[in-house]
Amino acid sequence: MTVLATPAFLNRVKSIFPARSVSNPWFIMTAVVFSAANLPEEVPRVFAYAMEDVQTDQEKIALARKFREALFKSGLTSGYPKVINSLKALNDTMPEGLREKKVLRNVNLSLEEYGKIGKRAFTDLYGSTAQSVQSLLDDIYPDMGWFSNTIGYGLTYTLTDVLSPLETSYMLVASLITVDTPQQIIWHLANARRAGASLEEVRAVREIAMEVGRCAGIEWRNEVPEVLE
Predict the structure, then answer these.
(1) What is the mean predicted confidence (pLDDT) over 54-67?
(2) Which CATH number belongs to the domain containing residue 74 in this structure?
(3) Could you give the CA distance from residue 188 to residue 172 in angstroms, rounded to a whole number?
(4) Is residue 46 part of a domain?
(5) How many domains does the chain have?
(6) Which of 67, 71, 25 is nearest to 166 (CA)?
(7) Which of 176, 199, 201, 203 is nearest to 187 (CA)?
(8) By the 8 A CB rule, do 28 and 70 touch?
(9) How many CA atoms within 13 Å lie on the side-chain side of 115?
(10) What pLDDT is stored for residue 71 in this prediction?
């Protein structure tokens, strides 16, 4: 089987993100795209390459958690069967000391509490567009609106101890580009800007997702939206 995530390819992808940024989240988009493209075998290769940039045990643990959390969160947009396969491939090569041993989310909160948390997070992320998007979700199927607030934004996306809100936005953009959903890409490109990304950074996120997508064999039926200024 041909290896796609070669060191040369990953180095090129890594170089796309602006060098002057505080941190380079290239590996989040790269791992998520390979996972969403149903190429789980590439995810451990991305992890191994990213590990070359960290030194301490604490940094290694943090990186391993970011990989797992990015993949887990991407399941709501790319599909959890793909995420399960990617997490298994990653876990099979993960050193024992870097494996997760406990649930990171608060299992003691009620769904009602998660719904309130999610609604606040949704409103903060979508800004002035929050009401129109929420109304759309509620209108097409009330369960969709409830699920988005409670499970999506309440339970899944708002754990920010591992992935920051901005990194979560990057993850969403990468996943949505891979699965070719222009409307949602537009939403989350704008959300990444609201979360604090510069125009140059969001453009780099889009470019990385498309570069990895092309490598993974993705063929887009729709034009991938550009980042609006």
Answers:
(1) 96
(2) 1.20.1290.10
(3) 7
(4) yes
(5) 1
(6) 25
(7) 176
(8) yes
(9) 8
(10) 98
Amino acid, res. 129: T
| Residue span of the structural domain in which 17 resides | 7-104+159-216
Phi and psi dihedrals of 15, rounded to 5?
-75, -15
Is residue 171 a part of any domain in this protein?
yes
Residue 17 covered by a domain = yes
What residues have CB less than 8 Å from 29, skipping those under 6 apart? 170, 171, 173, 174, 205, 208, 209, 212
Is residue 18 in some structural domain?
yes
pLDDT > 90 fraction of the chain, expressed in percent and rounded: 97
pTM greater than 0.70 (yes/no):
yes
Question: pLDDT per residue over 142-197, tens digit each?
Answer: 999 999 999 999 999 999 999 999 999 999 999 999 999 999 999 999 999 999 99
User: For residue 214, what are its two tokens?
Assistant: 């092309």
Tell me if 163 sits within 8 A of 69, measured CB to CB: yes
Distance CA 175, CA 171 (A): 6
CA 185 to centroid of chain Cα atoms: 12
Tens digit of each residue's pLDDT (9 = 90 or more) over 77-103: 999 999 999 999 999 999 999 999 999
Give me the sign of the Cα torsion angle 83, 89, 91, 94: negative
Distance of CA 112 to the CA centre of its chain: 25
User: Rounded CA gap, 215 and 151, in Å?
Assistant: 32
Contact 213, 177 (CB under 8 A): yes
